Automatic annotation (TrEMBL), chain A:
Family: Belongs to the intradiol ring-cleavage dioxygenase family.
Enzyme Commission no: 1.13.11.3
Protein name (Swiss-Prot/TrEMBL): Protocatechuate 3,4-dioxygenase subunit beta
Pfam families linked: Dioxygenase_C, PCDO_beta_N
A GO term, aspect molecular function: protocatechuate 3,4-dioxygenase activity
UniProtKB/TrEMBL annotation, chain B:
The protein's name in its UniProt record: Protocatechuate 3,4-dioxygenase subunit alpha
Lineage: Bacteria, Bacillati, Actinomycetota, Actinomycetes, Mycobacteriales
Gene that this sequence comes from: pcaG
Entry GO MF terms: protocatechuate 3,4-dioxygenase activity
Pfam families with a match to the protein in the record: Dioxygenase_C
Keywords noted in UniProt: Dioxygenase, Oxidoreductase
Length: 248, 210
């Protein structure tokens, strides 16, 4: 647990460590996702009590995002092809508090399931007006919103007839090194969930937290469908970090 | 491609509003992180030309000692004075040393699995009971096949005394400790990160559970 020198003043619940994520994340060696095989540690992790380096983190955003970055459908002088969607939601910590002014980065395939990436060999056409990358900051109450195209599913080489469900990659910083999160947003009722080891690597109870909700209220007449996706980062420990608590 | 198809139970109508509130799980960055994550100035923790700047290079190897060419690293560190320009630094906010120091670096690997950030050496940090944390950089490692980032730390070879009494390093056995201490290079420091070794006394880098 974090302990600070006596001359440090602790105000409110600042400087408490951030709660762990056990039971939320996938095991690092999920056999059915083949690439994990050589890319997971075999030795136990070393417990690192959270110190100053871990409870602080990059505060980014100002100057790194323009309003245009929140609309992925207009690129290189034209409109992207596919189903236009509005994705919005809130970023919270697991204590339910809003995470304001934090940078969200997203990247995704186009409507045909093709990424604008040299390594993507799926022969769906590239869309000259879709780059598949966006950035947005949460506002003072943790809300964010961007406009994009619903990504297509695409095949990959994990196993026979393997397809990734449609998804958008999300990257968030929160306010501490410990809160950093990279995840994927899925769409409700995707028919490909049953065979995707990346989605299903996550414990069953937590999988639904990666699936957005269709949001008719956010849908815009004659223009775009709406989806809501709230993202929850680690919260602070509820127990005091010093005093009567055990220190392991 | 392997000749099997996993099959998992499906929960119809699943979405986040129908499951208990809780943290969003981590997922892999996948093979195409280069679309969304790199920034032109990502590797520049300090601006080009900053006096005293050093290159930190990190090479990431998989369980077969093959360099992971699709890896990305992120670094987070105190400034040269051992401060964080962050509201949760209990000593209060401070102007960064040197000026325009960002604390954060992000770099993608080249074909040799090596990522490079340009920074300055961090200062030591106050820790509990009046002890001092040796200068260090937190490193997050992301790649296809990693469902969650791996976290390790870089320490410096020219800090023998501080490393010896550092509260994190001093709690590790000497063989593990060694693996977190970078090697000096002509322009800075280098660390090899070995993601996997089934031998407990083998080459696997110590990774941290935060």
């Amino acid at each position: 647990m974090l302990q600070l020198p006596p001359d440090f003043t602790v105000i409110g619940d600042k400087n408490r460590p951030y709660r762990d994520q056990s039971g939320v994340n996938a095991p690092r060696d999920f056999d059915e996702y083949r690439t994990t095989t050589l890319r997971h540690p075999k030795q136990p992790l070393t417990l690192l009590p959270q110190r100053l380096t871990e409870i602080t983190g990059p505060v980014l955003g100002e100057g790194r995002v323009t309003a245009a970055d929140a609309d992925l459908t207009l690129a290189h002088g034209g409109e992207a092809q596919g189903q236009r969607i509005i994705v919005h939601g809130r970023v919270l910590d697991s204590d339910g508090r809003a995470v304001p002014n934090t940078l969200i980065e997203v990247w995704q395939a186009n409507a045909g399931g093709r990424y604008r990436h040299a390594g993507d060999t799926w022969p769906a056409p590239l869309d000259p007006h879709f780059d598949g990358v966006g950035r947005v900051l949460t506002d003072a109450t943790g809300n964010y919103r961007f406009t994009t195209i619903k990504p297509g599913a695409y095949p990959w080489g994990n196993h026979t007839n393997a397809w990734r469900p449609a998804h958008i990659h999300f990257s968030l910083f929160g306010q501490a090194f410990t809160q950093r999160l990279v995840t994927q947003m899925y769409f409700p009722d995707d028919p490909m969930f049953f065979q995707d080891p990346i989605f299903n690597s996550v414990p069953k109870e937590a999988r639904g937290r990666m699936v957005s909700a269709f949001d008719y209220e956010a849908t815009q007449d004659n223009w775009a469908l709406g989806f809501r996706f709230d993202i929850v980062l680690r919260g602070r420990n509820a127990t005091p970090f010093e005093g009567d608590d055990h220190d392991d | 491609m392997t000749d099997f198809a996993p099959r998992y139970p499906v929960t119809p109508g699943i979405d986040f509003t129908k499951v208990p509130f809780g943290q969003t799980p981590s997922q892999t960055v996948g093979p195409y992180l280069h679309i969304g994550l790199p920034w032109p100035d990502g590797p520049d923790v300090v601006p080009t030309g900053t006096e005293g700047s050093i290159d930190i290079t990190v090479t990431v190897y998989d369980g077969h000692r093959t360099p992971i060419a699709d890896a990305m690293i992120e670094t987070w560190q105190a400034d040269a004075a051992g401060r964080f320009d962050h509201p949760d630094d209990p000593r209060g906010r401070a102007e960064p040393t040197p000026a325009r120091f960002r604390g954060f670096g992000r770099a993608v690997a080249d074909s040799t699995g090596t990522s490079t950030v340009r920074t300055v050496k961090p200062g030591p940090l106050s820790a509990e009971d009046g002890s001092i944390e040796a200068p260090h950089i937190d490193v997050g490692i992301f790649a296809r096949g990693m469902l969650e980032r791996l976290v390790t730390r870089i320490y410096f070879p020219d800090e023998t005394e501080r490393n010896f009494s550092d509260p994190v390093l001093s709690g590790m056995d000497p063989r593990q400790r060694e693996k977190l201490i970078a090697k000096a290079t002509p322009t800075g420091y280098h660390l090899d990160v070995v993601v996997q070794d089934s031998d407990p006394n083998g080459d696997e880098t110590p990774f941290f559970d935060l």
